[in-house]
Structures are given as C-alpha cells and as structure tokens.
C-alpha cells in the first residue's frame, strides 16, 4: 500500500457502494462515525482534502471552459459525472491536474498548427446572450453540487435525501445495464476479429460503436489477407517467391489467430468480467497496424512475380515507420530466399533453375556456340530487384556467363573456381530449415538466422554484397581471360588481325601486292583461290611474316568476294585476305566482326593499291625519263604529270596515316586490357571501339557515309591518272621505238653508202611526228580536264572534312591542305578552314540544337 490515504478512502467508498443503495449517504455517515476515532482522524482529513482538491480542479476547468463555450462546459459536467460512476479510472485528481496543465500550455507554435490543425473554438462575448449565461451558471452550479456530493451536509440537507437516494439507485441500475451491454459488445467484437460477420447494434452508445468499428476492421483486413493467399481467388502471386510471400502471410495469420484465442480465453473468463471493450480496443492497435500494412503490401503485389514482387516489397523497407520497415524487411527476406538459391546456382555453377521465370537472367535456346556470349543470356530489366543496381546485375550476368563459357566453349576442367572464394562468405548454403550460418566478427561465434526473421542483416542488404559480387566478377573474368590468352592465344590473334587484315605489316603487304599485281589485273572470273594461296605463302616466306607462330599462319587465308551488281570485276575488286577463327575466339570475332574487317580491308586495300600503282608509275616515269633527252616536246607534259602524281601520292599517304593514327590509341588500349586480363565484355567494347575508329578514318562508318562517296570520287580520279600515265607512256614508247627504228635505218643505209632517208621516208616521218604532236595535245587537254576534276573532288572532300563533327577528320582536312594550296584555288575554303567559321558553322548550330533538345527532355 503505497498511498494509505487514498487506499482507505477508496476501500471505504467501495464498502458503502456494495452495502447500501445510497452510497453517498452511507459514505458521509461512515465518515461521521469514523471521525470520532483519533487514529483515523488524520487520514479522514487527508481524504477530505483530496476530495476538496478534486472539486477545486473541476471548478477551475469549468470556469475556463465557460469563458470559451458554454456547450463545452456542459459536456465537461456530463463527462465528469460518468467518470465518477466509472470504476476504471482511480486517480481522478491526477487526471484533472494533467488536463488543466495541458489547457494552460501555449498552443501558438507554428509547426504544431501546421501538423495538427485545431479549429478555433472561441466564441465572442458579445454573442453570448443572457439566457445562455444563465443556463451556464445554473449548470455550473448543478455541476459543483454534484462534484461535492461527498462533503458533509449542512442542516436542512436531509430534506433532499430521498431524491438523492432515488437518483443514486437509478445510476446503479444503469451501470449494471451498461455492464451487460458491454459484455455483449466484447463478444461481438471478438467474433468480428475472428472474421465472423457480426452487426453493430444501433442502441449502443456512439463511443462504443466507434470502438467496435475499429476492432471489427481487423476482421476486414483478415478477410483481405485470406483472399490474397487463397489459390481460388486468382490474387495469389505465382512462382517460388510468391510462395514465400504466401507462407509468410500465413504464418502471420497463424500468430494472429493464436493471440485472438488467448484474448478470447481471458475475456470470457468469469462470464466476461475479465475484459472490457476498451481493453480489447487497446490490444487491437498492434494487430491492426500490422495487418493494415500487410494488406497494403499484398495489394501492391497483385499479379507480380520474381524481381517485380521483390521490388514492390522493397519500397516498404524504406518506410519512415520503423515497424513497417521491420515487417517489410522480414517479408522481403522470406520471399527472396528462392532468389538467393537461384543466384547462388548461377554464380557458382552457371546454371539457371527458374521454372516460373522469376530470375532476372534469361536463357534462350537455339543459340550457336559462337554467339553464346552475346545472345544466349540477357538481363530482364523489369525483373531486376530494386535493391540491386543495374551494374550489379550486369556483373552477375557476366560472372555466370564466364562460368558457362569456361565449361562449354573452353572445355575447362571442372576444378574449383577462384571466384567461389569471394562468394563463400556471402552466399553460403542454407539448410532445409532456412537458417544461414553467419560468423560474428566481434567474438567469432556462429549464429543462425532465418530468412523470415532475425535481427541480423539479410543477404540482400549485406554491406559486402557489392564488393563480393565485384570481386567474384573480376576473378571469373581473369580466369576466363587467362584461359583465352594461354590456351587459345588471344593476344596473337588480335595482333594478327591488325597486321594482316588492317595492313599494318608493311613489308608483307607491299611484297604481296607486287606478286599479285599481274594476277589481279585479270578479270575476276579467271582467278582461282588455290593459285592466290600459293602466292600468299610465297609472300609470307619472303617477309617477316615467316616468324609468326604456326597457329597464326594456319588461319591466314585468301578469299574472293565477287560483287553482286552485275558488272564485270577485276581481281583487285574481289580479292581479300581472311583470318579464320573458331572455338572460343569466335565470341570475340563473330560473323558481324568478320564482315567489318572485310569492309575495312577492302577500303584500305584499295587505297594501298592506288598508292602502289602510283609508285609503279613513278618507276616507269623514271625509266622513261632517261630516254626523253632527244624528245623535248614531252618534257613539260611529263613534268606536270609527275607533279600531279606526287599530289595524289601525298593524299593517299595522308589517308593511310590518318587511318592508323586515329585508331592507334584504341588498339593500344585494347591490347593493354587483354594483357591485363580484364573482363571479356570490356574487351568486346574496346574491340568494337577500335573498329569504329578505323571505320571513321577509313570513311566507311555510318556517320561518314557522305564522305565515303566523296572519297570514292577522289580515288577513282586517282586511278584515272594511273590509266592516263599508262596511255601516255605507251604512246611515248611507240614514238621512241619508231624514231629509234628510223635512226637505225639511217645508220644501215649510211653503212651501205646510200642516202640516209628518202623523200617518202621524210614525208612519212613528218606525218608520224604530226600525229604524235596531236597525241600530246590531246593528252594535255585530257590532263587539264583531269586536274580540274580531281582538284574539285579534293576540294569538296576537304570542305566536308572540315565541316564534320569528328575532330580527327577536321584535323585531316588541315593535313590535306597544310600549305593552303587548295584554299588559294577555291574561295569556298576560305571560311570553313578558319576558327571563326567553325564557331558559326552548321556544327555549332547542330550542337546547340542537340543541347537544347537534351535540356528540354531533362525538364
């Protein structure tokens, strides 16, 4: 007994209520008799002081409410009367003190008014009528008399004793009726909580109906969850992860039923006297909160499965309410347990066990082995869980593909992989009960946690998930690249593609072109692969290519690709070198990559052939120049032809130099990545980038289609120059042979003591010289036309290069006209080759337009 005063007064009050029909009168009479006892007098005085203090507090609260609204004051009197008749609350004086203190607390906080808006209840004094004031005062008087009913009566108070006794009897009868009604409400509420349909009686008081409705809402949530996990409803999620969610909800409902059963036994104990509707309502708060959020999560999970389902639940993990976040975390851990098993199987063994298509990695059948890395496996973007980034999904995909590639393409021995060591601590094997053994770094003890619960960190939110997946990815990629580099000679094949298909091995290309010059000048229909292959072997043995490894030389072959446009081709148009790859290397060099290499070889071979033809023309010109000492009429023409040839040679050299320099950095990065054994996707991207750089500078890329046509015009005109020189040299050689024969005839006639030349021979010689001079005049005219056409095409090419968005192609434009030769000959090049024009050209306009579009999209 902590407070003897209140305990004695309370016991005395209970005794009077149990033994008398007029508890107040009996209580006053008992106080009168007990006051004669000196031992209890002090306790009685203290009890009276408590009653007086309670009456004082009621008067203060009533006065404060009367200033605001008379209606509120009346409601307070009614509520206080019910409070006095109630046996639930014992410390009435403490509750009244708290209410008075709360009313005196200032409520002018700005943030409080915003979060909890309170309507203005103040009533102006001018609007309060006299009748209202009178009624208020009368009600306050009545209320004060009722609050002080336990004070000893004055003389004459016995006249009102019968009415007081009758009113008290009515209150006791009403109290008993309320108790029986409350017991029925509790029974109905328990039935509603269990999912049984029950009706709320309209005769119940409004507060009871509100509490009943709040409790009965548990039954509605229970029915929603039961419908969600019912297979016949069509709402139950499919798949293994859906089964995990259904199992978790079923366990929650089982626990809920157990709590309801325990509550039912406690409430019904002793004919319902052990529990009240308010106690049931207080108990229902926690299940109501839990089932409400479970129903919300289940509603968002309709018709979803796999990673989509996990993403829906993961959104609730970031909820601000810690209870909701904990519930969602336990649910997510339970339903992602099948995902953990599939992820472990994929990362460690490269196998997909996904009967319901829930895994975010998809396997497609019917894909050939050389396209396995590119097409067989892919990520379902919509199935990637939200707790996993796209980068992690790509790493997981690449790790599993590396395992499959090593097993199927590389025929690797089934030895323990290095990447398993990084995943051992994270993706440990779970036992049949779903427990995961985790080692505490603090004390080194092993603790078991279940996927559906436990305070430990779940696998999907583990701090080392990203690092472990990244380390496993790096280890698997390094192992794969080590196998490709060691057993399949990846670096040698990359270098061989660059040397022989992209014509980087200069001595081999020059010697091969020299050997094939006569053969490829024939029509394409008269060529045979076996004869060209023999020439290829001869070129290999005569150059540094002979020092290549055997596995490289065995793959270098000759192929003929005739055009399908119906025109008659020469050997130069259909000849191509081919580098055959198979096995795992087919992943890095697929058919599409071989087509790109063939296109690059064709373009580079064409430029190289033109350069070789011009060099051959220079050699013929040098040989012929020694015989032209007695033919001064051709000196000017030959000098101009030599200048134009040098101009075309410089253009071909600049094109080849730009092509190799532009892709040199990309190839160096590719070879360095292959030597460092980076992951295969990185090598594929670098290889694709290197081919793109080559294609751009060879002007066969999709972004340089316009330049390709202009470059083709320039190359065609350059070939026309070679044809022009061949015709010119042939005409000059014929004239030289005729003159040599005439001189030889003169010498023979002089030796026979005859006239050196007759009149007929002289007339014939003049006619031949006249024809030759006409031939030279025609060739000069043709050369002038060719020079104008060629320089016009070159000027247009330089202009388009200067206007291109690629900076290296703009640099090529300056390189082709470094001496401003073409700029002086054409006014169109005056502005495009200046910095000011570049700022105001269409490049700047296109860039500004693209920036504006991107900015608008971001908004």
Textual characterization of the structure:
The chain has 859 residues and is mostly helical. It is built from 34 helices and six strands. The chain has helices at residues 4-19, 23-34, 38-68, 70-85, 92-104, 110-115, 130-147, 161-193, 206-228, 239-267, 277-283, 285-300, 306-317, 322-335, 337-349, 372-376, 390-409, 419-424, 465-486, 490-501, 506-520, 529-542, 550-553, 571-574, 585-588, 591-625, 635-675, 680-697, 705-751, 759-803, 807-816, 821-825, 835-840, 842-858, and strands at 361-363, 377-379, 436-439, 446-449, 556-560, 575-579. The strands form three sheets. It has a two-stranded antiparallel sheet. A two-stranded antiparallel ribbon has the order 3-4. A two-stranded antiparallel sheet has the order 5-6. A hairpin with a 6-residue loop joins strand 3 (436-439) and strand 4 (446-449). Helix 3 runs parallel beside helix 5 (92-104). It is elongated, with a radius of gyration of 51 Å. The model is unreliable at 1-5, 107-176 and 429-455 (pLDDT under 50). Keywords: Cytoplasm, Cytoskeleton, Microtubule. Residues 144-179 are annotated as: Disordered. It is found in: Cytoplasm, Cytoskeleton.
Helix content: 55-70%
Question: How much of the polypeptide forms β-strand, as a percent range?
Answer: under 5%
Cα gyration radius (Å):
51 Å
Mean pLDDT: 76
Q: What class do helices, strands and sheet pairing give? A: mainly alpha
């Amino acid at each position: 007994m902590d407070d003897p005063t209140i305990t004695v007064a309370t016991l005395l009050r209970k005794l009077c209520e149990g033994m008398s029909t007029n508890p107040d009168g009996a209580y006053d009479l008992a106080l009168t008799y007990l006051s004669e006892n000196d031992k209890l007098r002090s306790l009685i005085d203290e009890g009276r002081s408590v009653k007086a203090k309670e009456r004082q507090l009621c008067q203060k609260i009533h006065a404060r409410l009367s200033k605001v609204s008379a209606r509120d004051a009346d409601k307070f009197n009614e509520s206080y009367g019910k409070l006095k008749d109630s046996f639930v609350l014992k410390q009435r004086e403490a509750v009244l003190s708290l209410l008075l203190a709360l009313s005196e607390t200032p409520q002018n906080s700005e943030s409080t008014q915003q979060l909890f808006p309170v309507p203005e209840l103040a009533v102006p004094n001018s609007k309060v009528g006299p009748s209202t004031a009178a009624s208020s005062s009368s009600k306050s008087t009545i209320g004060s008399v009722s609050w002080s009913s336990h004070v000893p009566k004055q003389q004459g108070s016995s006249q009102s004793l019968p009415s007081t006794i009758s009113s008290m009897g009515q209150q006791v009868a009403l109290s008993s009726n309320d108790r029986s009604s409350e017991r029925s409400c509790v029974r109905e509420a328990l039935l509603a909580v269990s999912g049984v349909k029950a009706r709320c009686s309209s005769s119940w008081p409004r507060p009871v109906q509100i509490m009943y409705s709040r409790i009965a809402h548990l039954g509605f949530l229970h029915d929603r969850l039961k419908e969600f996990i019912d297979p016949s409803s069509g709402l139950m999620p499919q798949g293994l992860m859906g089964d995990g969610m259904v199992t978790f909800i079923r366990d929650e409902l089982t626990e809920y039923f157990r709590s309801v059963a325990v509550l039912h036994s406690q409430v019904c104990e002793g004919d319902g006297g052990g529990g009240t509707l308010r106690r049931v309502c207080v108990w229902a708060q926690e299940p109501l909160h839990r089932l409400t959020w479970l129903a919300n999560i289940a509603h968002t999970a309709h018709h979803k499965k796999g990673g989509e389902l996990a993403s829906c639940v993961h959104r609730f993990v970031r909820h601000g309410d810690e209870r909701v976040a904990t519930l969602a975390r336990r649910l997510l851990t339970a339903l992602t347990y099948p995902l953990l098993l599939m992820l472990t199987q994929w990362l460690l063994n490269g196998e997909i066990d996904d009967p319901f298509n829930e895994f975010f990695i998809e396997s497609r059948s019917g894909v050939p082995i050389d396209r396995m890395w590119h097409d067989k496996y892919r990520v379902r973007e919509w199935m990637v869980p939200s707790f996993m980034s796209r980068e992690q999904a790509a790493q997981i995909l690449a790790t599993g593909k590396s395992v499959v590639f090593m097993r199927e393409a590389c025929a690797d021995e089934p030895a323990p992989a290095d990447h398993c060591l990084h995943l051992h601590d994270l993706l440990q094997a779970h036992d049949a009960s779903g427990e995961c053994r985790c080692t505490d770094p603090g004390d080194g003890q092993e603790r078991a946690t279940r996927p559906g619960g436990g305070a430990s960190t779940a696998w999907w939110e583990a701090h080392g998930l990203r690092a472990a997946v990244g380390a496993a990815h790096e280890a698997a990629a390094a192992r794969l690249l080590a196998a490709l580099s060691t057993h399949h000679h990846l670096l040698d094949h990359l270098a061989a593609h660059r040397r022989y298909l992209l014509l980087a091995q200069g001595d081999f290309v020059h010697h091969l072109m020299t050997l094939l010059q006569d053969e490829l000048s024939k029509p394409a229909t008269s060529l045979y692969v076996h004869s060209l292959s023999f020439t290829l072997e001869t070129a290999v043995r005569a150059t540094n290519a002979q020092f290549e490894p055997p596995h490289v030389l065995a793959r270098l072959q000759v192929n003929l690709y005739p055009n399908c446009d119906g025109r008659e081709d020469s050997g130069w148009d259909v000849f191509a070198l081919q580098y055959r790859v198979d096995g795992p290397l087919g992943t890095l060099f697929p058919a599409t990559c071989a087509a790109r290499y063939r296109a690059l070889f064709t373009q580079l071979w064409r430029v190289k052939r033109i350069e070789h033809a011009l060099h051959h023309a220079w050699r013929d010109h040098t040989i012929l120049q020694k015989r032209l000492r007695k033919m001064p009429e051709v000196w000017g023409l030959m000098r101009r032809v030599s200048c134009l040839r040098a101009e075309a040679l410089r253009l071909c050299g600049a094109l080849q130099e730009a092509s190799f320099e532009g892709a040199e950095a990309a190839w160096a990065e590719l070879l360095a990545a292959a030597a460092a054994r980076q992951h295969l996707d990185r090598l594929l991207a670098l290889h694709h980038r290197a081919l793109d750089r080559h294609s751009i500078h060879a002007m066969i890329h999709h972004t340089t289609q316009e330049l390709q046509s202009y470059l083709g015009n320039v190359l065609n005109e350059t070939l026309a120059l070679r044809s022009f020189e061949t015709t010119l040299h042939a005409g000059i050689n014929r004239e030289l042979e005729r003159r040599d024969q005439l001189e030889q005839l003169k010498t023979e006639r002089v030796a026979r003591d005859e006239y050196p030349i007759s009149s007929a021979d002289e007339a014939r010689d003049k006619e031949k010289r006249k024809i030759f001079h006409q031939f030279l005049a025609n060739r000069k005219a043709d050369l002038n036309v060719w020079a104008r056409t060629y320089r016009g095409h070159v000027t247009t090419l330089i202009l388009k290069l200067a206007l291109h968005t690629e900076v290296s192609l703009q640099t090529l434009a300056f390189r082709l006209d470094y001496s401003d030769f073409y700029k002086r000959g054409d006014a169109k090049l005056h502005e495009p080759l200046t910095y000011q024009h570049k700022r105001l050209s269409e490049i700047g306009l296109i860039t500004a337009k693209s920036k504006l579009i991107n900015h608008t999209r971001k908004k």
